[in-house]
């Protein structure tokens, strides 16, 4: 435990406004329900204020509009950014010692920076490069002609097949596979013939890729994930797709081949995107949407098939009333039929 921090030091570190004793010692951060005296806890919104008042934490990190009765607080404009900074204080990353473990297998033509780390049973193929301060954890497989950029971290069982380029400060979580064959076949009338997938995958700087993500190599050319994009667990990205910068892709989303995803896009959980779709910069796609048509820049779509979010909400709101509406329509049809019968009798 870190006993050397005071509440005043932490407030200065995050640029917050302190209400309370600046000399109060803080030795850690914990959730509201698990915090002990001497620990700082986190209140994301006013709805959590009551839970904070019940918490045993000694102080709280809060947004500007939240108070915790009679308790010390650090007020900040962006609580999640402040929380990230404080978590790095109390839980600093500990990089393993540089060097190549005895059980690792490194091709003679591969180049490993002196201060890179290659841990037990990792494999680095021919003509591949592992740059300064990169870390390959146990059982990572790096194929031939790959590059792992400066300061990047590949966790256990990550696989880079041949010709995958990973930029600087990239984090790839366990089990991800980059550069597997794209799903390309041509039907000859009797059988599906495989189309060789001879392109590559390019991951730009500062990308984070979740566990068991799959990013397929291009048929020709490149499948690209641009700078700063964050990809959650269990996401599939098809061949020749380009994902823009600073985009968020949430778990279980599937992106088909040859799509173009813009900068600053958000794809919520379990979104499915058909091939060759273009999603413009800053667009938002709601969870479990099926996207078959292009989405304009700044657009917000939802549903299956995906439609503008305002329209989708009206459709969703109408769904529970459909049985009642159908009964009303049937009753109206019966009344119209009866009136028509009476009119025929008059004639």
Q: What's the gist of this structure?
A:
The chain contains five helices and 40 strands.
Number of helices: 5
Q: Cα distance, first to last residue?
A: 96 Å
CATH class value of the largest domain: Mainly Beta
Largest β-sheet summary: 12 strands, mixed
CATH arch. level architecture of the largest domain: 3 Solenoid
**Average pLDDT for all residues:** 95
Shape descriptor reads: flat
How many separate domains?
Answer: 2
Task: Characterise the protein shown here.
This protein has 347 residues and is an alpha/beta fold. It folds into two domains: 5-90, Udp-n-acetylmuramoylalanyl-d-glutamate--2,6- Diaminopimelate Ligase, Chain: A, domain 1 (3-Layer(aba) Sandwich); 99-310, UDP N-Acetylglucosamine Acyltransferase, domain 1 (3 Solenoid), CATH 2.160.10. Helix content is 18%, strand content 29%. It contains five helices and 40 strands. It has a twelve-stranded mixed β-sheet, with helices on one face. A ten-stranded parallel β-sheet has the order 9-12-15-18-21-26-29-32-35-38, with no helix packed on it. A hairpin with a 4-residue loop joins β39 (300-302) and β40 (307-308).
């Amino acid at each position: 435990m870190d006993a050397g921090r005071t509440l005043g030091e932490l407030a200065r570190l995050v640029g917050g406004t302190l209400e309370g004793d600046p000399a109060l010692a803080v030795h850690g951060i914990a959730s509201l329900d698990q915090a002990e005296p001497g620990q700082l806890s986190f209140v994301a919104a006013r709805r959590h204020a009551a839970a904070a008042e019940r918490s045993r934490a000694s102080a709280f990190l809060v947004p500007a509009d939240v108070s915790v009765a009679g308790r010390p607080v650090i007020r900040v404009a962006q609580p999640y950014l402040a929380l990230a900074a404080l978590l790095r204080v109390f839980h600093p990353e500990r990089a393993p010692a540089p060097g190549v473990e005895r059980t690792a297998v490194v091709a003679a033509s591969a180049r490993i920076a002196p201060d890179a780390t290659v841990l037990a049973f990792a494999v680095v193929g021919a003509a591949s490069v592992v740059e300064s301060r990169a870390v390959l954890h146990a059982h990572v497989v790096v194929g031939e002609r790959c590059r792992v950029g400066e300061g990047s971290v590949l966790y256990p069982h990550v696989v880079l097949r041949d010709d995958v380029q990973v930029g600087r400060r990239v984090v790839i979580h366990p089990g991800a596979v980059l550069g597997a064959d794209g799903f390309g076949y041509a039907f000859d009338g009797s059988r599906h013939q495989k189309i060789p997938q001879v392109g590559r995958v390019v991951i730009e700087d500062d990308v984070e890729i979740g566990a068991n993500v799959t990013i397929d190599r291009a048929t020709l050319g490149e499948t690209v994930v641009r700078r700063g994009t964050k990809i959650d667990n269990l996401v599939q990205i098809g061949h020749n797709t380009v994902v823009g910068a600073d985009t968020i892709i949430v778990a279980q989303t599937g992106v088909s081949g040859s799509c173009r995803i813009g900068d600053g896009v958000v794809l919520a959980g379990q979104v499915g995107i058909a091939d060759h779709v273009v999603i413009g910069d800053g667009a938002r796609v709601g969870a479990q949407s099926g996207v078959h048509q292009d989405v304009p820049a700044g657009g917000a779509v939802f549903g299956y098939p995906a439609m503008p979010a305002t329209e989708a909400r009206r459709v969703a709101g109408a769904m529970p009333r459909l049985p009642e509406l159908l009964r009303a329509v049937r009753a109206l049809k019966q009344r119209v039929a009866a009136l028509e019968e009476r009119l025929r009798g008059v004639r």
